[in-house]
Amino acid sequence: MKKHSEAQTDVKSLLGLGDQSTRKSYYAELEANLDELEREKNKYKSLFDHALHGIFQADLDGKILNANKAMASMCGYDTPDTFKNKHRNLKDELFYSKEEFLRFKKMLLQNKQIDSFETTFHTHLSDNQQIVVSISAILKDQPDQLIECFVKDITTLKEAERELLIAATAFDSQEGMMITNHKREILRVNNAFCRITGYTAEEVIGKTPKLLQSGQHSPLFYKRMNDTLSLKKYWQGEIWNRRKSGEIFPEYLTITAVESDEGNISHYVAAFTDVTQIKESEAKIHHLAYYDTLTGLPNRQSLMEKLTSLLKRTSRSQRNGALLFIDLDNFKNVNDTHGHSTGDLLLKHVANRLKETVRETDIVARLGGDEFIIVLEDIGDDDEAINENVRHVINNISELFSKSIILDQFEYHASCSIGVTPFKGGETADDVMKRGDMAMYQAKWSGKNTCRFYDPEILVPQFHMAELELELRNALPKDQFTLYYQPQYNTENLTGAEVLIRWIHPERGIISPAEFIPIAEETGLIVPIGWWILESACNQLKEWSRSDETKHLQLSVNVSARQFSQINFVEETIDILERTEIDPNLLKLELTETVVLTDVDETIAKMNELRLFGIRFSLDDFGTGYSSLSHLKKLPLEQLKIDQSFVRDITTDPDDAEIVQTIIAMSYNLGLSVIAEGVETQKQKEFLELSRCKNFQGYLLGKPMPINEFTANCIPAAKT
What we know:
- It is a single chain.
- This protein is an alpha+beta fold.
- The protein has five domains: 4-47; 51-152, Beta-Lactamase (2-Layer Sandwich); 172-280, PAS domain (Beta-Lactamase); 291-454, Alpha-Beta Plaits, CATH 3.30.70; 469-713, TIM Barrel, CATH 3.20.20.
- The protein has an eight-stranded mixed barrel with strand order 18-19-21-22-23-24-25-26, surrounded by four helices. It has a five-stranded antiparallel β-sheet with strand order 2-1-5-4-3, with helices on both faces.
């Protein structure tokens, strides 16, 4: 653009024609108009240069023709010229994408004007940095259509909108939220508040949070909450509130005080979460950690904590307590015979019965397996009172266990061994538990189904039994067992023998079965030992089958309840018979009443299957258990064996004599043979013969002996 003086010269040269006065007049007027135009131009330029928003002009192809300082600064440049040099084309350099520019251009060509077009511009500060802008644009109809744009940086506004959106989203989150004024009048609540409490916003706005109070907290609790808010402007913790329905529920609450510019509290913002499910989960976890899942009784961990606490109280009060260590007798037989589901059912019955025997203040716990604990609190301050109270509980337990239990239509007679140890303060829970455990084993070793008080004098035999158990586990692999044979006679003729196991210990010598068989039963070692006995007996029958003098002899083998209850008992027995190739009719399996009555139906099924194979059965120790005539009629028995406890006094005790005669008569009525064991005198034998008993076993006829002695003393050919 030409300067003002140059323009005047040009005008004068143009007005060279005409008279001088006219020229002067036109010149003056034109000069005045030029001055006015110059002022307008400068005014516009000043507005253009100092506008707060960016302004730029471009052609339709996107070439930038002009820009102001605000536009340059907005994009990170010092001057408009630098901006134009760096951003020569809108579509490739200024707009964030070419597609955005084409969309902008299309709208402008359609409408000739755009009031607001939001998009993103590049900046000079970094390759990735952008600004959000709002463009107002006009398409001027000139020979070369011109785009004139007014640009406003709205990045901060957009960020504020996002912040507000986040805040609004947070307010309507899953947490209940409530805003009150300084008077604690509710101003606003969110949807989660309404969902959790059951109140609508209209029902609570204008009221105070006291509306939610449950009554579970004391005034002191709320005073401390307010004191903390006043001091720290913040409080958080667990609180119990009440829903509109009246249900009390736990929540985790956070309250924040909002201060004004003057430092006064203007609002309170409360956020809370319903922790009902968390509390329920915590309760379940606690129950799993401290209570037995099967019976619902306290478990070992819970018991130890309760017992520790009780011992501390006992120490302060000088009032004594007692611990009863209870172990079910022969529980493994139930699991092995009927399965673990039936065993679990029995444990539940026992747990319920034990709870019936004690006070609510006493503890009944399950350690695991078939072991239970009863802890009696405050049972006296002298030995006489302690013993009396403990005996009372034991009598209750015995009475309850005397009643049969029906398990899945199966009648079970449970019994237990109980160890008792009194306790005072000043000792640990571990010490008390160890004494109770030892007392329980004293009861076990005394024959089960009994109770024993802790007696340190019996510890030596206990340690002996523990050592014996360890050595018993190696007895079979080390070939320390042998079989003894006690002859059985029909009047005067040898019919066979009963095989009896003996343990020949390399250091202790011969160990009686009465000493190690209970341990084998308890540990389950009786099963592999039982299979060894059966196979050894079958091998002996195989050996006898080679001689005319012995090929008719029978062998009776005792079968334990634990072994008979094995699922594969029938298959394993038949397998042994087939391997040894013996005559099954020469093998007699002796079962006790305990075995038979454990599960009559299953017992009959197994016996029938083996009976079809040729094996015969004898019912051992008859008369000592709970056999009924109905059971005997169902069992595929060949023989009843009169227990030696009845035979011992048949010549001196009329009751025993009558019992034996009744058993013999019943055997004949059932079509069964009968054999009496424990025959030790000639008078006993004569009485039995007069009572029509024809089969005998006992010391009168021969004691149990190794096979070589049996052969030498009992087999006719060997005698001669």
